[in-house]
Amino acid sequence: MMGIRVAATFIVIAGIALGFFAFGDTEREYKLGLDLAGGALLTYEADTENLAGDDIDGAMDALRDVIERRVNVFGVGEPRVSTETALLGGEIAHRLIVELPGVTDVDAAIEQLGETPLLEFRLVRQEGEPIQVTTSDGSIQMPSQTDMLYKRAELTGRYLQSARVQFGGNGGVVNQPYVALVFDSEGAEIFEAITRDNVGRELAVFLDGELLTSPVIQSVITSGEAIITGDFSPEEARDLAQNLNFGALPVPIELVGTQNIGGSLGKATVAAGVTAAAWGLALVALFMILWYRLPGLIAVVSLGVYVALMMTLFKFIPVTLTAAGIAGFILSIGMAVDANILIFERLKEELRDDRQGVRDAIRNGFKRAWASIRDGNLTSIFTAIILFYTTTSLVKGFALTFGIGVVVSMITAIGVTRTLLLAVGGETRSVLFGSGIHK
Amino acid sequence: MFIIKHSKLFFGISALLVAASFVLIGTKGLPLSIDFTGGSILEVTYTNERPTRDVVEAAVGAVVPNASVTLTGERGIIVRTPFLEDTDREEVLTALEVDGALFTEDRFSSIGPSIGEELKRKAFVAIGLVVVVIIVYVAFAFRRGDDEARPQVKGPSSWVYGLVAVIALLHDIIIPAGFFALMGLEVDTLFVMALLAILGFSVNDTIVVFDRIRENLRENADRKRSEDFGETVGKSLEQTFVRSINTSFTTLIVLVTLFVFAGAAVHNFALALIVGIIVGTYSSIFLASPLLVLFGRRK
Fold first, then answer.
1. Which of A387, B82, B128, B213 has the fewest Cβ atoms within 10 angstroms?
2. Is A330 close to B260, i.e. CB distance below 8 A?
3. Residue A135 vs residue A304, higher pLDDT
4. What is the distance between the alpha carbons of residues A167 and A175, in angstroms, rounded to a whole number?
5. Measured in whole angstroms, how far is the alpha carbon of residue B12 from the centre of its chain?
């Protein structure tokens, strides 16, 4: 008896603590999906017709890397680039999904993503060298950080013919991988001029404005061939060669879907969702207390713990909350209430049997309700799992919160409601355990 | 138990509703959203006064064919068009500046036809898979393995339970679809989600009654009491009746608040679920159990 009451007190305190964490702690924020936070979602379809089956995955990975680099230039928080395959009329379509939270100017984003990436060679500036950056209209611009440190060398990926990984004893280490570049004839001339004038200086290689490597020019090179050495692992060298080769996109892509949600619309959706959830919970709580009295009140406490636990899980996992996800969560509240109702209806029947005390009635009521709760919830969990694995991202959000919700609701119904009921249930029957309009 | 006694009446109501739904879906069709057909949707809110629908429609219609304009809220409009390239979108935006009216762009969604095709396929696959899993699970959960030691426990085979559960399920998703056809409401991804959630709720509801039937069958066997199967089912229905109503009622409370407060985005979603929960509750009480008696007695 004491044990149960201690456990019940512990549960209530833990519930309040969770509540504070879920609603009070502002340091950790909920992760909102694009539809709620505002942002753009771009879907591209890759044209893989000219690729052999084995090469497609590699090409798609390279494509993702290229696009990811370009996306990172935007400086938006947590962009996501992912590839996806879809079965379309017997053929496999390869897609690239770009999520850009907070981006409202979708045109600029599309333009920037569609650009061919820039492979650039720049000389590392020497001290005292004058910095002059003029734009096309002749105005003076503030030099960027990169311009301060590196000088453009007029050599870009446009002149690159190929890049490939080679292994060799260059510099004494056997099997050290390096990347071999071959320029076309025009590039070879430029390269020759640069190397002739700048022996001993560093020639930096930039891809999409990002520094890749910065080798020292050893001697003048006339062949139009260059190697980039460095402390590469074979994988890194392969990636670098791939990136250089794929200066242009490895596969042509076509924009097949755009979704852009303004931040204000998202905020309104969140506010409306919160209002709906609050009203829904309040009305359900009112009904439960009016109909089931003391057990009803306990169900409300148990539901409170349930909501706090769910919100904490959303923060911790973290679950990206979307409008569909919130709908899934609100629906799972229905399942949580159902478990309590099943238990109380069973309890009522057990209490009619005068031969057992209230506490035994509670125990038996739970035992009997369990089969129904288990069978009903398991089918819901199966539904959630199927949804999660067969559908698109929108439905996944729903499936995830609904699935988690059903599992957690089962745990709170059995763990919390049961413990609390046992803790307050005395030995004698009272009107508090009645239900409905009867005594 | 009057439900079992008058089961023909309840079968009739269900059959009528399902038939009507099929007719409605067949004749009026289900208007598919751009999620499934591909297309573009643009939502803007005017800063000051909103031009009238006709003016906007004429302006947009001059730029892209087959555009439809609906008003939303006090100053918002939604423009639906076939799949737009990004350049076309610019033109539409320019067209919306009727007489220099200012607005903010809230949402732009453009879905290529291939994505829509795939979504449609995935929706059918998901619904089909859920139905199959449920019939298998119910057949498994109600298998008679642990009753084999007690052959005196009577009742139908577990596959009959599974079959009846699935009939109830189909009933529960066909009627909301018919309702949407009747009202001319657009079917989108959220609607499919609603159907799947209805499947979950409905089977839950049905299983609770079935569970009780099985329990009563076992109790009868233990007490060596012989009882007509119809009577056992009727008794089980009485015992679970309050629970069914209360659960559906609380779920409906939540859904109605969702419908009222949660904004246009989930309006149809909540509505589909409300219809689904109502028919789902009806089917688990008035359809599934009488069907079980019908099939269970035949063996």
1. B128
2. no
3. A304
4. 5
5. 21
Separation of alpha carbons B192 and A324, rounded Å: 12
Nearest chain B residue (CA) to A92: B118
Using an 8 Å Cβ cutoff, are A301 and A15 in contact?
Answer: yes
Give contacts of B204 with chain A, Cβ < 8 Å. Answer: 335, 338, 376-377, 379-380
Contact B99, B90 (CB under 8 A): no
A190: number of Cβ within 10 Å: 17
Question: Are residues A391 and A322 in contact, defined by beta-carbon separation less than 8 angstroms?
Answer: no
**Pairwise CA distance, residues B189 & B180, whole Å:** 14
The structural architecture, per CATH, of the domain B39-111 is 2-Layer Sandwich (3.30)
Q: Tell me which fold the domain A39-258 belongs to.
A: Gyrase A; domain 2 (3.30.1360)
Whether B204 and A335 lie within 8 Å, measured CB to CB: yes
Q: pTM for the whole thing?
A: 0.75
pLDDT surpasses 50 at B2: yes
**Boundaries of every domain in chain A:** 2-23+262-433, 39-258
Cα separation, B95 vs A96, whole angstroms:
31
Residue ranges per structural domain of chain B: 2-33+115-297, 39-111
Q: Is the peptide bond before B51 cis (omega within 30 degrees of 0)?
A: no
pLDDT digit string, tens, across residues A181-197: 888 787 888 888 888 88
How many CB pairs below 8 A link A and B?
A: 200
- Are B243 and A342 within 8 A, CB to CB? yes
Q: Minimal Cα distance from A373: which residue of B?
A: B208
% of chain A with per-residue pLDDT over 90? 4
Continuous H helices in chain B: 2-5, 7-27, 34-37, 53-61, 86-96, 113-141, 158-183, 189-222, 229-261, 267-282, 289-297
Phi, psi of A347 (to 5 degrees): -60, -40
Q: Whole-angstrom Cα distance, residue B1 to residue A420?
A: 37
Distance CA A338, CA B250 (A): 8
User: Nearest-CA distance from B3 to chain A in Å?
Assistant: 21
Judge: A395–B129 Cβ closer than 8 Å, yes or no.
no
Mean local confidence (pLDDT), B261-266: 75
Token pair, residue A52, equals 């052999």
DSSP 8-state secondary structure symbol assigned to residue A105: -
Tokens, residue B182: 């009747």
Residue A385 has pLDDT above 60, yes or no: yes
Strand A80-88 to strand A39-46: parallel, antiparallel, or no bridges (unpaired)? unpaired
CATH of domain A2-23+262-433: 1.20.1640.10
> How far from A170 is each of A178, A191, A350, B121, CA to CA, in Å?
9, 21, 85, 55
Of B114, B211, B261, the CB nearest to A372: B211
Q: Are B127 and B192 in contact (CB under 8 A)?
A: yes
The CATH architecture of the domain made up of B2-33+115-297 is Up-down Bundle (1.20)
pLDDT digit string, tens, across residues A278-288: 888 899 999 99
The C-alpha atoms of residue A427 and residue A418 are separated, in whole angstroms, by 16
Most A CBs within 10 Å, among B114, B249, B273, to test the A interface: B114
